[in-house]
Amino acid sequence: MQATISVKNLNMMLNDPNLRLFDTRFALSDTDAGFQLFVESHLPGAQYLHLDKDLSGVKTPHSGRHPLPLKGDFQTLMQRCGVDKDSQIVIYDASRCAFASRLWWLCRYYGLEHVRVLEGGWQAWRSANLPLSSAQVEFPRSHWVATTNQHMTADIETVRLVSKQGGCSLIDAREEPRYLGLEEPIDPIAGHIPGAINVPWKSMTDDLGHFHQERELESLWADIDKDPIVYCGSGVTACVDILALHQAGKSARLYPGSWSQWCSYMI
Q: Could you give the CA distance from residue 18 to residue 30 in angstroms, rounded to a whole number?
């Protein structure tokens, strides 16, 4: 299934009773800012999901900064939002799909198939002068049951083995200065996992947050193994690379703990 949707096509879907629209705007520097923006204005029918509270699990000393939510917790969240197996899920943010891609990945990991990210996100919708709302919506609670696709993840032991022996591509989706260890604004240690190559997540989209055309993405990923492992700082922006790989016709595994977990064992 196509992983993205245009503002034009989403606008045509707004009255679809199966549509479940999610706003995932977020800022690491101010974790309440996204919700405040949502309260002020959002796409009609949207529900807000918070990266830390909804799209991540409980942190431990070696879990990484944004561990995956437990299956039961994600199931409860989606039930509360009125999501079932037939829901048409569309997600947007204002950060070049960084947080929207995380929810896209989680939905697929837990068994939801009809999920897409809005091309260009909040900015594209606003630029098109399409409808906005400040109303809070609620849907009847669903009875959806989550499943888990373990083939979509790689744990730290797998990554350690790949780092030492190879066997598949290990991709670091962070910006080049962080990959090279020249700067590290968040985690306590700079650098990257040995053997990883750098394919920054922002290179998947243009400056307006639109993913590059499939032919461009196919060319970009042409030399990558068919089942690479992708990581970033905490398992969030790596999902942008994974979505782009999906658009290019390739599957990939997420290392959820990412660099924040890896470097926690180096302290």
A: 32
As given in the structure block, the two tokens for residue 43 are: 């796409």
Domain ranges of the chain: 4-127, 150-265
pLDDT per position in the chain (267 positions), as tens?
A: 699 999 999 999 999 999 999 999 999 999 999 999 999 999 999 999 999 999 999 999 999 999 999 999 999 999 999 999 999 999 999 999 999 999 999 999 999 999 999 999 999 999 999 999 999 999 999 999 999 999 999 999 999 999 999 889 999 999 999 999 999 999 999 999 999 999 999 999 999 999 999 999 999 999 998 789 999 999 999 999 999 999 999 999 999 999 999 999 998
State which fold the 4-127 domain adopts.
Oxidized Rhodanese; domain 1 (3.40.250)
Question: How is residue 223 written in tokens?
Answer: 């030399």
150-265 under CATH 3.40.250.10, yes or no = yes
Report how far residue 213's alpha carbon sits from residue 49's, in angstroms, rounded to the nearest whole number.
28
What is the Cα–Cα distance from 168 to 230, expressed in whole angstroms? Answer: 11
Active-site positions read 232
pTM of the predicted structure, to 2 decimals: 0.97
